[in-house]
Amino acid sequence: MAQNFTAEMPMSYGMYYSMPTTWNFTNGSSFAVTAFPMPGANENQIIANKLGRNGFQRIQQFRDYQPGWDFGCGQAMSEIGFIVLCQFLERLELPGGMRPSVFLTQAGHLEVAWEQTDGGKVQAEFGPKGIEFYRENTGAEGILGLTEAPRAAEILTG
Question: pLDDT tens digits for 51-72?
Fold first, then answer.
């Protein structure tokens, strides 16, 4: 079964259970995949520790969303975004057991948001191309690459 694949297309969590698949890239090349790595206990533990039971359950629900979930417009959860979110949360230190809220955007990106002790709002969105962030009390906002999750955690909490 051939699938068309572009950099913009999020890979759904369900793809991890797929049978052998051929991926066709927009540049004309293709390759066959027999299995993707499944999120492990380590990633699930990070989510549970940092987002709490509700956050963990929400991500489990998001994994089941199929393309078209938002009145025909929503995309499946980006697994790349999930992995980068885990890397971010691993480094994130919030005071007093504070737990960010987690959302799935229409584009299939994972977004976390919380309010700092001074009332400032913080948001970070994790997609297949990078991390978009905003910190109200410093005015910091921007886009970081997929490998810059530790830096994003530092910017948003430092």
Answer: 999 999 999 999 999 999 999 9
Is 133 in contact with 141 (CB distance < 8 Å)? yes
HSE-CB at 57 with a 13 A cutoff on CA atoms is: 3
DSSP element (H, E) containing 55: helix 41-64
- What is the mean predicted confidence (pLDDT) over 37-44? 71
For 23, the domain range is 2-33
Tell me how far apart the alpha carbons of residues 6 and 147 are, in angstroms, rounded to a whole number.
Answer: 20
Of 120, 118, 121, 146, the closest CA to residue 132 belongs to: 146
| 106, 52: one domain | yes
pLDDT digits (tens, 9 = 90+) for 102-125: 999 999 999 999 999 889 999 999
- Looking at the structure, do residues 51 and 79 belong to the same domain, yes or no? yes
What is the DSSP secondary-structure string of 68-100? TTTTT-PPPPPHHHHHHHHHHHHH---GGG---
pTM (2 d.p.): 0.75
Structure tokens at 120: 């400032």
Residue 58, both tokens: 């929400």
Task: Return d(Cα 153, Cα 140) in angstroms, integer.
Answer: 12
